[in-house]
Fold this sequence. Notes:
Layout: H1 22-28, H2 33-47, H3 55-60, H4 71-90, H5 100-120, H6 124-129
Amino acid sequence: xxxxxxxxxxxxxxxxxxxxxxxxxxxxxxxxxxxxxxxxxxxxxxxxxxxxxxxxxxxxxxxxxxxxxxxxxxxxxxxxxxxxxxxxxxxxxxxxxxxxxxxxxxxxxxxxxxxxxxxxxxxxxxxxxx
Length: 130
């Protein structure tokens, strides 16, 4: 098995630093700093309260102190961070980081689909409450 990984670079495709593990590729890469900063600014606007730039939120979609935010808002943050991670995955091997505009487009697309799902179920009010 060790022969399989021989010759595989351990450096990040974006910044050239290693080790290029999951924590680095989703949070620690210096080239992702601006992306995550902008994501957290937008999240704070969406939930109308401060959302600290936190690696637990960025990587897992949860806060270290979930009791500080009401459940509905925590769900929004979790979903939006999932879509941000998806955006990072789509640009995994690119040297430039993903853009917040692309993330907002992804978020908008997903919310449209969720709206349709709730409307088909006859519960569009339930979607708006969430």
